[in-house]
């Protein structure tokens, strides 16, 4: 049940961010839901592999390289989900930072209740 709630929260955040951010767009709620599903799957499968392969860069940058990995996950999601477009890497990086921030806020509020 908790997974479904997080999925729906991510869907809402993706739709809202695409309304306000240039360079990132989503066609509708269905595409946003598929983006949330794709990101969940990619974070469970591709992210650990990327983190392992880029461990030296992550250590040297004190963890800031993880934002680059998040941007790559966003771009791969845009490749697989029809109706979700990201213009370039920098928009994906900005989108991933803002998405992570709002997910942290909402998940932190959810744990308080």
Automatic annotation (TrEMBL):
<keyword id="KW-0472">Membrane</keyword>
<keyword id="KW-1133">Transmembrane helix</keyword>
<feature type="transmembrane region" description="Helical">
    <location>
        <begin position="59"/>
        <end position="82"/>
    </location>
</feature>
<dbReference type="Pfam" id="PF04020">
    <property type="entry name" value="Phage_holin_4_2"/>
</dbReference>
<protein>
    <submittedName>
        <fullName>Phage holin family protein</fullName>
    </submittedName>
</protein>
<keyword id="KW-0812">Transmembrane</keyword>
<feature type="transmembrane region" description="Helical">
    <location>
        <begin position="88"/>
        <end position="106"/>
    </location>
</feature>
<dbReference type="InterPro" id="IPR007165">
    <property type="entry name" value="Phage_holin_4_2"/>
</dbReference>
<feature type="transmembrane region" description="Helical">
    <location>
        <begin position="32"/>
        <end position="52"/>
    </location>
</feature>
